[in-house]
Amino acid sequence: MFVSTLVPALVSRWACSRRLEEARLSVPALETVVSFTIVAPEGSADSILRAMSGLVARLDSVLDYRGQGGLGELNRTGRGVPDGDLRLLLHRAFVLRDETGGAFEPCILPLVVLWGFHDEPRVPSPAEIDSALALCGPSCCRMSGDTIVLAPGSGVDLGAVAAGFIADRAFELAMESGAVAALVDAGGEIRCGGDRDWRIAIRHPREDGFWDVITVSDCAVSTSGDYEAFLLSDGARFCHILDPNTGLPESGVASVTVVARTCTVADGLSTALAVGGPDLVEAVPDSLWTGVLFVLETDSGLVERRFGVL
Ligand code: AMP
Ligand code: MG
Questions:
Q1: Are 79 and 149 within 8 A, CB to CB?
Q2: Could you report the per-residue pLDDT of 112-164, keeping only the tens digit for each?
Q3: How far apart are the CA of 19 and the centre of ligand 2, in A?
Q4: Full-prediction pTM beyond 0.90?
Q5: Which 3 state secondary structure label does DSSP give 302?
Q6: Mutate which of 271, 280, 292 to test ligand 1's pocket (most atoms within 8 Å of Cβ)?
Q7: Which end of the chain has fewer CB within 10 Å, C or N?
C-alpha cells in the first residue's frame, strides 16, 4: 500500500520538473514518406528519431514483396520459416483474413502483379484474371508447423498492412525509448498516442483538401481509397484494391477510414472494408475497430456513412 501510493507521486513530480522537446523527421520508405513527430525529454529526441528511422529502414526491406528481405525471399523460393517481425505480421495477416471473411487476402500477389499497380497499370483480360485468381487465396498458401508453403506461381503481398505495422513498431519504439508522446505517419497510416490529443485530417477522395478532421488519442487511423493508385479506362476507374473473390478492383467505396487500437489492424481493415463496403462492418468482430467512416460513390454523388465513434 505504501509503495503504490508513493511511487506515482514521485513519478509525477519528476514528470513536471523535466524539460521536453518536440522533434520531427521524415524518411523515404514503402515507396512513400514515413514521418515521425515525438515529444521527449530534452536531449533525447535525436537519438530516438535515429532509432525509429533505422527500424523503419529494416522493416521496409523485410516486408518488400520483391526485395532482398524475408518476404521477397519467401516469394522467390515458395517456402520458408519466417521469424521475427515477418512471422508476427504474417500470423496477424492470416487472422485478419479470417476475421474479414477473406476480403483481406495476403496471398494476392499474382492479381496485384497482373493489374500492375506497382509498375505499369493495365486492364487485364477476363482469362488472365481467372488464371491469376487460381493462384490466390488460402488454398495457395498454407502453414505447416512454422513453415509457410506457397503454391507454384503464387505469392504473398503484405502491402495492405505493412505501413500500419511499421507505424505501430516505430511508435512502440519511441514510447519504450522515453518519448512522452509520438505520432508516426506511414504514408497516411497513422499511429499516435502519449500524453496529448492529435488532430488527424482525412483526405477528400475527389478534391484537394480534407473531408474531415478528427481529434484522437492513443489509437491508429488508416484510410484506404480508390484515389491512391488507379487507372481510368473508357471512363471507368480501376483502383489498386482488389476483390479476392472476383479479381476485379473494388468499386463504390471512394475512401474508408478506420480508427482502431493498432495501425496494423486499422490498415488491414480499411483495405478489407474498401472491398466489402458498409455491410462488412457488421460482419467483422467489433473489437477490431472503434470508428469507421465511409465516403461512398453513388449516383447522387459522394455520400458518407459513419459507424462507432469518430
Ligand atoms: P491499402 O492502400 O492499405 O488499402 O493497400 C492496398 C495494397 O494492398 C494494394 O496496392 C495491393 O498491394 C494490396 N491489396 C490489394 N487488394 C488487397 C486485398 N483485398 N487484400 C489484401 N491486400 C490487397
Ligand atoms: Mg491497408
A1: yes
A2: 999 999 889 999 999 999 999 999 999 999 888 889 999 999 999 999 999 99
A3: 37
A4: yes
A5: strand
A6: 271
A7: N
